[in-house]
Amino acid sequence: MTITVPYDERLFKRTTQFLLRPQLNRLYVLGAVLVALGVAMLTLTTIDKVVGVVCVILGPLLVFRIGRVTAAQALEAQWSATRAAFNLVIDDQWVSIAYPLAQMRCHWETLARVVEKPDVWYLMFTKSQAVPLPKNLMTPEQQAKFAALAAARTSVVPLRRAPAQRA
Q1: CB 16 within 8 A of CB 82
Q2: Which residues form the YcxB-like C-terminal domain (predicted)?
Q3: What is the pLDDT of residue 165?
Q4: Which residues does 47 contact at the CB level (< 8 Å), separation at least 6?
Q5: What angle, 0 to 180 degrees and rounded to 10, lies between the N-to-C axes of helices 49-64 and 66-77?
Q6: Rounded mean pLDDT of the chain?
Q7: Is 4 helix (H, G, I), strand (E, B) or coil?
Q8: In angstroms, rounded to a whole number, what is the distance separating the alpha carbons of residues 15 and 122?
Q9: Rounded to two decimals, what is the model's pTM?
Q10: Residues 108, 153 contacting (CB under 8 angstroms)
Q11: How far apart are CA 117 and CA 156, in angstroms?
């Protein structure tokens, strides 16, 4: 099965945020703690108010801006050879990714896992390296074939569906 995945900056940013989510979640919690600490310092104590103000300013920055800033930095650091469409060739033994200036071919066993999301699969090589495979580029038959190959060859993190509504 061969699929051409066009270069999509939004998909790259979403993939970056997906990969960084565990670290970003910790920063979001830290931001919320800083806000609470800053408010407490400003209202409850007579300690230096500058520290409280700094906490109140840094907290929302961590919560609301750090994800976007990190994705933007990753986009700037992206290797220019990968800023192009790529061909993904998948068969029983190999996963091949070919950009115009670079290519990689590896056995299925080198994939750590495949993570399914509503509109994309992430082929995870490591915790911080993934190749997105948008579902809208595939026919239903190709999606079924890929799902079967992935299930047979790697551990698949299934799509979490919302619980059914009770009548």
Answers
A1: no
A2: 90-149
A3: 47
A4: 41
A5: 60
A6: 84
A7: strand
A8: 8
A9: 0.73
A10: yes
A11: 11
